[in-house]
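quick one
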Amino acid sequence: MIKAFVAGHPIAHSRSPLIHGHWLAEHGIAGSYERIDVAPSDFPAFLRGLRESGFRGGNVTIPHKEAAFALADTLTPRAEKIGAVNTLIVAEDGRVHGDNTDAPGFCAHLDHSLGAEWPGRGEAVILGAGGAARAIVVGLAERGVARIRVANRTPERAAAVAALAPGVAEPLAWDDLSSALEGAGLVVNTTSLGMKGQPPLALDLAPLPAGAAVADIVYAPLETDLLAAARRRGLAAVDGLGMLLHQAVPGFAAWFGVRPEVTAALRDRIVADLAT
Ligand code: ATR
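structure w/ 2'-monophosphoadenosine-5'-diphosphate:
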């Protein structure tokens, strides 16, 4: 029996067990994927004990992504660049390998939602400069987006994120957003604005060209005010759930040996759960 986990603090809200449980059942795999609440002070010992606990690997989420980056024995170049790890793989010799699948997960989601030609839509404007923004800037640059502009309430953090893709990404003053939107093909909200319990993201989408797409990484609610405004303008609107589903694919493939599909049935199941 192959065992995997998701570790966070708190962890009760995580939908990852539902996603991996769905795929385990679909493929008839004798495996488990369990939710584990690990306090930050316990995380180093948890990581060191993974092999003895019989785990093949797992996901880490808030607040452990930076600690997992610091403690993993080896890292993918992508995780190294982003500075955060969300997927751990335990090798035969017990060494723990760290990857970041948020970047390819977000891009795979855009492939599904917009078609694989989306990097050609034009400049990207990223709102926010947290961990999700770091992964998305690295992902977009990998996919060849020619110019990425990063706007954040705290400008120093925008500059730090833009520095991850030199020559491609640059910081953008929050006050200059409106003029930047005139030339944008893709806008991505990575801030927590619009999330249940948070204020909405007040962004006037009027300057965006007709062919632009608007993506939100917030998935609770699924239809944020930002996405509703994009649809009203006739723009492509990409919700945040797909990133969560697609980032899970590489981990499942590494632990359980089958590359799973993000199907409409899986999505419907998570949407139903989010509604409860
Ligand atoms: P994550 O790692 O999940 O991306 P984070 O590091 O907490 O999360 O980042 C949250 C993002 O939302 C940040 O860009 C934050 O802006 P600051 O860097 O200025 O803190 C942004 N954010 C949160 N609340 C906001 C608000 N009320 N107005 C504007 N931006 C906000």
